[in-house]
Every structure is written in structure tokens, then in C-alpha cells.
Amino acid sequence: MPYYKGALSEGPGIPTHLQFSQESAEADGAAFREAMSHLPAAVSIVATDGPAGRYGITLSSIVSVSDAPPTISFYIARRAYVNQVIKQNRQVSVNLLNRNHTGLAGVFARPRRCETGDLFAPALWQLSAGLPPSLIDARATLSATVQRTIEIATHTLMICYVKQILFGRDELPSLYFKRQFTTIKHGEDT
């Protein structure tokens, strides 16, 4: 199956900077992951706290669903332990990261239980009884309740109603692109 690559020299109405290539890849898992690595995505830390424990995970799958009522969704691997924890706690905070959070995003990219409190240090997180942790200097934090879960292939889709929004520092966002954390370069010509 052909796809666009490079520069195209022929064809009415087709931009000259595009070119057809006959290269293709079988639509297997490895090729799919490679293709998706070319899609820049905003980075967030989803945190939860409740009867099943306090956990957090870095995600790039946050999606706005609706504004009436305010609804978001995200996916978590079914095999990830935090999947079951969120299903039991039923509440999350979605912390939208800025460019200064790449180290923190890396820490939460491998979800684990915060038994010693090191992941949710009070200097970085607002910790309140009965509520999921909120990152103090996030671009924004959305506190939400899980309303529905849907099992899809290897992941669980979690649909959440947003109950509260806290706005924080208005800095450039943290992005995940080509398997690394990055940000946009504001004000530069592309």
C-alpha cells in the first residue's frame, strides 16, 4: 500500500513536497507501535487514592469527550496493576504536565505503589484525605470520577466525569514523540 514520503514532482493539485512511495509495512503490532510513535501526544500523570491504595501512572491517552457534562477518557493496559486500583478507587486526578515535568513523567511511566511516599512528596503534590493527589505546579488538574470502563483488546477504556478543575502554571506542555519526552518550540517558525 503506497504512502506519501519526500517530494512529489507530478500530479495536478498535489503539493510538490509530497511523493508517493511504494514502501509499506505489514499492519502488525511492531509496525503499528512504530507508526503511533510519530503521533505527538500530551503527557499527563493520572493519580488515584482510596481503599485500593495511592498510585500514579504517566499516560498520553487522555481525550476530551464532552463538555456537557465535562467528560474525559483514557486507556490503561489491562495488565497494569494500576488498572485494577483505579477501578476499585473510582476516582482520579488527571495532571496535565508542563515541559519541566519530564523527569517526573519518567518516574511515573512505570507505575508502582507509593508505599514510602517518595513518589507523592508533599513538596510536589497536594494530598488530601479521600481525594486523589494533585500535582501542585501542573498546567491543570482535572479531578474526576470513573463512570464506565470498557475492555478493548489489551487495554481498558476509562470514561470519567470531571468534578473539579484546578488551573496551574501556564507553561509549554510536555509531549511524548518518537518514544521520548519533548515539548513544542513556542514562537519558532516551522
Describe it.
The chain has 190 residues and is mainly β. It has two domains: 1-7 and 15-38, no CATH class; 40-177, Pnp Oxidase, Chain A, CATH 2.30.110. Helix content is 13%, strand content 37%. The protein has helices spanning 29-36, 81-89, 102-108; strands at 3-4, 20-21, 41-42, 44-48, 55-59, 63-67, 70-77, 91-96, 125-126, 134-135, 140-152, 155-167, 175-177, 180-182. It has a seven-stranded antiparallel β-sheet, sandwiched between helices. Strand 6 (63-67) and strand 7 form a beta hairpin. It is globular and about 55 Å long. The model is unreliable at 1-11 and 16-20 (pLDDT under 50). Residues 36-183 form the Flavin reductase like domain. It comes from Gluconacetobacter sacchari.
Short description:
The protein has 190 residues and is mainly beta.
Keywords, please?
Pnp Oxidase, Chain A; three-stranded antiparallel β-sheet; globular; disordered N terminus
In N-to-C order, the SSE pattern is EEHEEEEEHEHEEEEEE
As a percent range, the share of helical residues equals: 10-25%
Largest sheet geometry = 7 strands, antiparallel
The CATH topology of the largest domain is given as: Pnp Oxidase, Chain A
CATH architecture of the largest domain: Roll
Mean pLDDT score, rounded?
81
The percent range for strand residues is 35-45%
Quote the distance from N terminus to C terminus: 29 Å
Question: Which secondary structure elements does this structure contain, and how are they paired or packed?
Answer:
Blueprint: E1 3-4, E2 20-21, H1 29-36, E3 41-42, E4 44-48, E5 55-59, E6 63-67, E7 70-77, H2 81-89, E8 91-96, H3 102-108, E9 125-126, E10 134-135, E11 140-152, E12 155-167, E13 175-177, E14 180-182
Antiparallel strand pairs: 1-2, 3-13, 4-5, 4-8, 6-7, 7-12, 8-11, 9-10, 11-12, 13-14
